[in-house]
Write a structure and sequence with these properties.
Order of helices and strands: HEEEEEEEEEE
Number of helices: 1
CATH architecture: Beta Barrel
Largest sheet: 8 strands, antiparallel, barrel
Strand content: over 45%
Shape: elongated
CATH class: Mainly Beta
Number of strands: 10
Helix content: 10-25%
Structural class: mainly beta
Length: about 190
């Protein structure tokens, strides 16, 4: 048992030393996500498709902490039987701080805390939508090499405020659906 514990401690030390060499590096990359929804309800059929693309740039501050900014584009397209179709194109800005709290040989688990702003217009004759968010996105990074990481972010826990015309929406909670699952790649320099 003592040998196993010693091997685990040494392994964690080696991982931290290897990660310490990354301090001060920049990364370019990003993430993308897609989703599809279909609902049937008493003759009111709705189907929808959404996607978002979020290129990002970041800087590694220390072995566990990084800062970054994602700027991207998204689109939500819903067709309704009884209402007009919605085709919302949106612009997205999300500064963030990423903290890696578990590190293994080729995998690290992180939490990404940040703020977000989205602006979009759902249709020709509809008011624009402004959305602000503050929260945490958990994620996983797979270190494919010293220069490339595959990342995934799953879910969002936090507060969201949306305004469209006179309508306002306050939302606080944990969301884990296809709109909140992102996959991407980061390349380090």
């Amino acid at each position: 048992m003592k040998k196993v514990l010693l091997i685990i401690i040494i392994s964690l030390g080696v991982v931290n030393v290897a990660n310490a060499q990354e301090v001060g590096k920049l990364w370019l990359g990003g993430a993308a996500g897609v989703g599809y929804t279909k609902m049937k309800n008493a003759g009111n059929n709705t189907s929808g498709f959404n996607f978002q693309v979020l290129p990002e740039v970041g800087y590694i501050v220390n072995t566990n902490l990084s800062v970054g900014m994602a700027v991207g584009y998204g689109q939500f397209k819903y067709d309704r039987d009884v209402h007009q179709a919605i085709d919302q194109k949106k612009f997205i800005v999300k500064p963030f701080v990423r903290y890696s709290f578990l590190r293994f040989d080729r995998v690290s688990v992180f939490a990404e805390g940040g703020l977000g702003y989205e602006w979009g217009k759902p249709g020709k004759h509809m008011n624009e939508i402004n959305t602000f968010e503050a929260g945490i996105r958990p994620g996983l990074a797979l270190h494919l090499s010293d220069k490339i990481n595959f990342i995934t972010k799953v879910g969002f826990m936090g507060y969201t405020y949306s305004k469209q015309g006179d309508a306002k929406l306050h939302d606080f909670g944990l969301n884990v659906d296809m709109e909140d699952v992102l996959f991407g790649v980061n390349v380090f320099f």
